[in-house]
Amino acid sequence: MRSAPAPAEEPSRPRSPGLQGELRASWRLLAGVLGLLLATVTCSTAYLQFGLGPQLSRVQSTVSELRCLQVAMTDREGSLRTWAATGDAAPLAQQRAAAARVEDCGRSLVAGASGVPDGSLVTMLVQSALWGRVWSAADAPAAATPTTAQLRPLLADDSTAFERYRQAQDTAIKQALASRDSLLRRQDLLVRGTGAVVASLVMGVLVVDLRRRRRLERLVDEPVQGLVTTMDRVLRGELGVQPPELDVPELARLGEGIGALARRLEREQAQGMLREESALRHGSRLQVVLGVARATAGSPSPHQVAQTVAAAAIELGRVSAVVWLEEREGEAFVPVLPESSTAPVPEGAPPGPVQRAAVEARSVRQGDRASFPLVVAGRVVGVLDVLDEAWDDEDSAQVDSVLEALARFAAVALQSARLHAQTLEQARGDALTGLRNRHSLDAELPVEFTRSRRYDRPLSVALLDVDHFKRVNDTAGHAVGDAWLRLVGGIVLDGLRTSDSAYRYGGEELVVVLPETDLDAAVLVAERLREAVAACAGPKAYPTVTVSIGVATVNHAMAGYEDVLAAADAALYAAKRSGRNRVVHSGEVVEALPV
Fold first, then answer.
1. 3-state DSSP call for residue 125?
2. Looking at the annotation, which residues are catalytic?
3. CA–CA separation, 81 and 459 (whole Å)
4. For residue range 313-358, what is the model confidence (pLDDT) as tens digits?
5. Rounded (10°) CA dihedral 410, 416, 422, 425
6. pTM
7. In terms of DSSP H, where are the helices of 117-147?
8. Taking the mean position of all CA atoms in its chain, how far away is CA 512?
9. Rounded to an integer, what distance in angstroms lies between the CA atom of residue 489 and that of residue 432?
């Protein structure tokens, strides 16, 4: 089986040598151009300074010496001819001065001829000098000639030599001027050429600079703008942005760094959001614990505290929660479910993890069950047992930490509730009879009276008084009287329903509050209590006592709970006046009143 042809590789984009490479190339090019420019200017200047300059100076000096020699020779010839023509000796002085200048100029001209670069000019100078010497040699005897008549033939003979000298000198001057002009043209050409080369180099530098600038703009400006745009998007929160592909290695690394930073910021943002969500969840869970603190603050019921704690555990995300509560010290734990729970109450002994948590006084997790002991002063007063779902490990650990805090607080709240209940019970109870006291009656009867009037439900009150109780104290003693009060209190508690309440009203008087009980039913309850007291055997010193009971029921004519108490009190006194040991209700008292 033939394999499929491999896909053609995409041509790789040429990579730039980088900003440093581009800068080095630019510097090399600039250094080369500047070196060439400096070399051109240096060579041109050196040639002008050490080549053409000295030559031009020597030619200029030669021209000056030739002119000086020409003027001196002309002055000499003119002086001689004037003397010969006039016979005046005065021009002879001028002739001698001119001869001295001729000698000086001739020596300077001969001395400078060796440095003249033009060979033909040197030839002309030599010829001019030779003809000058010929004329001077021919003219030398004139100084010793006594008469002008003797000089004229010499001048006439000499005219040919002087004309030859003059022609040679004119030719030398022309040749010197031509050599000077040639050197000046060469100097001008050199200056112009140097200027052209410098201008060309400058133009080349400008062109190259323009090209390098465009290249740098393409390599730097556009990528930098792309990086700035990418950075602006990152600053606006677009953390998933990808940097542009760049050819310059340095900028490519910078773009990769920006991309890596954006990805890191994105990860940090995601982790921050997760931490924020976790903190919010933890805060809301702690709010649940604070809610439990507010709900159980001052509660006198440990059972209610346990219900609130179990409900809070379910609110924290657990499937079910049970508080195994130690109702009394040293007794077994009993389960308490949330008030809204429809699950059946667990029966039998607590589960193994609950027992371990109670014994070891530490949290125990077994599978999806967790047990948190409620510890107060080193003693386990209960265990919070929860059943959770499959949670994230981190979140489950956080919930367990909140549940541990809830358990610590619940232990304190339970202990506080028990102490509060004990204190409240002591404040509301009567130490002698075990019944509630008058203060509790004043606090609870108004509530029952208001509920009865609001919902139009029956409410009855029975007022009991031990017959001849003063006689018991006076005959058998106060200890026996106290014993009979405890016995009567116990009989009353045993004969009431769980919804009924019994109070010690004062002295030997007791009050029984019967919610949801009309007058007829209240009379039956009172009669049963009277019979139970009459059948009770007391201390040998005073074995029997009886009670009189007055019964009253709330009606619409009553304005407050005091009215029903007053009606029951009136019925009680009616029972006492009728012979004691009997039950009288308020209707009988109204019927017995005179018209």
1. helix
2. 508
3. 183
4. 888 878 888 888 887 666 678 888 887 777 787 877 888 888 888 8
5. -90
6. 0.45
7. 119-139
8. 71
9. 9
